[in-house]
From TrEMBL:
Binds 1 Mg(2+) ion per subunit. Binds 1 thiamine pyrophosphate per subunit. One of its GO terms (biological process) is thiamine biosynthetic process. It comes from the Bacteria. This is 1-deoxy-D-xylulose-5-phosphate synthase. The gene is dxs.
Length: 622
């Protein structure tokens, strides 16, 4: 890497001749592909944003000037040229750098981001703080990769336009997030991008922007042409932003020239650029959804290196089961916020396109839309990743549970998720769902339990329901069986015993079972094991039985210990069985950083060996 090897900061970048920037972009792409082929990450969007990252750091005085990257899927080039080139080889690994912008990692990461649509609000806050402190800085928000379908983006735009803040919003329009973008805003941006008449006029007047005397005339003319071509005019100008674009965001020359002009224009501005997701790597350009995060691959051929694991993934069990249930019950509908392929809803989409809804990156809307479907007499299964469901907490309470509407939340990626790190850990859904009245909370131990819980939730006895399951492969259990009803709040006694009781919730129960087998063989002891299956309603009869035989209970859960299974069991035990002691295993009161799931579980002290140690230690307590 002739040029990239010499770039240790944006200051080095700014010393380059303009002619060297194109070669630098090519080297960054090559380096990114090389690293991600052996150490997987979010590749496609970052390949498309290389020129943008280079142009921004070339023109703006970072880190004094602030660049806020939305989501972080676009920010790999930004990380590479801001002193983390070598560290990028350990991107998303334990002890390595985060896959997302992170303030504690670098002064160039002006705001952390892992969830979507936050950049404009954060940029407005940074610009306002600088103004109040008397600082002269530039603030840029880079939003894209589907993030404009999130409501928070429009709340930020509305406030920023009214406040007349001096910020630049760059809409990086690659027309796809993880799956193809949907909704009216996407269609609106597409019309803006592809109107030849509008863009011919814009190109002719673009060079005039530097002429102060013509600016007001040009502004009026721009607005009138927009009103002529688009009946509703420009939504961005209606919100108080001056709209510029569309330009080719992979054309470095045009990008540098345009940003150079906009840098000196005061007030709220929005530059609409078009980039190609996967730019410069043909396999990624041809299959953008897959190459959003492709896993390991051969960098030369583009052949993805697939796992030879023969077990089913939990999301695939969900996808096939929900399709089968929909064939039986015409009331069943499915909803996802832009995660159709990730949560395996694609099969139902193909089978029942009019009963499967991808609502875009809009979790709050997804929940209230589901509530409306339920109020209308349908049976909605709303599939949202645990970390993203947090964003719809009010809607869960106010729109679903308060009205006791039967919405079944299929909470994918629950528990520790691995390399995505702190922003994506599904650590909190057990706790925040538990405090909501009317909510049933279930967590299957294996694939068959998941299938039967999805079936059972549709039956009477269940109201609003949360069924959580982890990312990745199951236990290898044969789940292709006829449905069996599971009574809500009913635990399973997997193993009786008289020395210590292990109460586990969810798939982590499989690690508990292995630990029990090991300890029983080595110590000749008799642990009891309950698969609780439900956090709410909790099976108090199971707790009663355990407390009647043992004096130590160990709870094991793949979630935060604050408010989850440990809290529920200990609250009950301390009132009724003061002679019993409850020991917790789960996620402590910390944010868990990136690494493999096994590494993270060991860090949190509830991997198989940690459960063994806890069981052995329990014999020394009394």
């Amino acid at each position: 890497m002739e040029i990239l090897d010499k770039i240790n900061s944006p200051e080095d970048l700014r010393k380059l001749d303009y002619s060297q920037l194109e070669k630098l972009c090519a080297e960054i792409r090559s380096y990114m592909i090389e690293c991600c082929s052996v150490n997987p990450g979010h590749l496609g969007a970052s390949l498309g944003a290389v020129e943008l990252a280079v142009a921004l750091h070339y023109l703006f005085n970072t880190p004094k000037d602030k660049i806020v990257w939305d989501v972080g899927h676009q920010a790999y080039a930004h990380k590479i040229i801001t002193g983390r080139r070598e560290a990028f080889r350990n991107n998303r690994k334990s002890g390595g750098i985060s896959g997302f912008p992170k303030m504690s990692e670098s002064p160039y990461d002006s705001f952390g981001a892992g969830h979507t649509s936050t950049s404009i609000s954060a940029a407005l806050g940074l610009a306002t703080a600088a103004s109040l402190e008397g600082e002269e800085i530039k603030v840029v928000a880079v939003i894209g990769d589907g993030a404009m379908s999130g409501g928070l983006a429009y709340e930020g735009l509305n406030n920023a336009g009214t406040a007349k803040s001096d910020i630049l919003v760059i809409l990086n329009d690659n027309q796809i997030s993880i799956d193809s973008n949907v909704g009216a805003m996407h269609n609106y941006l597409l019309r803006l991008s592809t109107s030849p008449s509008y863009n011919r006029i814009k190109n002719k007047i673009w060079h005039r922007l530097g002429n102060v005397r013509l600016r007001r005339l040009i502004q009026k003319f721009m607005l009138s042409t927009k009103l002529a071509f688009f009946k509703n005019g420009s939504i961005f100008e209606g919100l108080g932003f001056r709209y510029f674009g569309v330009i080719d965001g992979n054309d470095l020359g045009q990008l540098v020239a345009t940003l150079g002009n906009l840098k000196n224009i005061k007030g709220p501005k929005l530059l609409h650029i078009r980039t190609v997701k996967g730019k410069g790597y043909k396999p990624a350009e041809l299959n953008q959804s897959v190459w959003h995060a492709p896993g390991k691959f051969n960098a030369l051929t583009g052949e993805r290196i697939m796992s030879d694991n023969t077990r089913s993934r939990y999301q695939d069990v969900f996808g096939k089961t929900i399709t089968e249930l929909a064939e039986r019950n015409g009331k069943i509908v499915a909803i996802t916020p832009a995660m159709a392929s990730g949560c395996s809803l694609t099969e139902m989409m193909q089978r029942f396109p009019d009963r499967t809804f991808d609502v875009g990156i809009a979790e709050q809307h997804a929940v209230t839309f589901s509530a409306g479907l339920a109020a209308g007499g349908l049976l909605p299964y709303c599939n949202i990743y645990s970390t993203f469901l947090q964003r719809a907490f009010d809607e869960i309470i106010h729109d679903v549970a308060l009205q006791n509407l039967k919405v079944i939340f299929c909470v994918d990626r629950a528990g520790l998720v691995g390399e995505d790190g702190a922003t994506h850990q599904g650590a909190f859904d057990l706790s925040y769902m538990r405090l909501v009245p009317n909510m049933t909370i279930a967590a299957p131990m294996d694939e068959l339990q998941l299938r039967n819980m999805l079936y059972s939730a549709a039956e009477s006895g269940y109201g609003p329901t949360s069924i959580r399951y982890p990312r990745g492969y199951g236990e290898g259990v044969d789940w292709h069986k006829e449905f069996s009803y599971i009574e809500p709040g009913k635990a399973r006694l997997l193993r009786d015993g008289s020395d210590v009781a292990i109460l586990s919730l969810g798939t982590v129960g499989n690690r508990a079972a292995k630990a029990i087998d090991k300890v029983s063989e080595s110590r000749k002891v008799s642990p009891m094991h309950y698969d609780m299956r439900f956090l709410k309603p909790l099976d108090f009869s199971a707790v009663d039985y355990a407390c009647g035989k043992v004096s130590v209970i160990i709870t094991v859960e793949d979630g935060t210990l604050c408010g989850g299974l440990y809290s529920a069991v200990s609250e009950y035990v301390c009132r009724k069985y003061p002679h019993c002691r409850v020991l917790p295993l789960g996620i402590p009161d910390v944010f868990v950083e990136q690494g493999s799931v096994d590494e993270q579980m060991s860090e949190c002290k509830y991997n198989t060996v940690d459960i063994c140690n806890a069981i052995e230690k329990s014999y020394d307590i009394f």
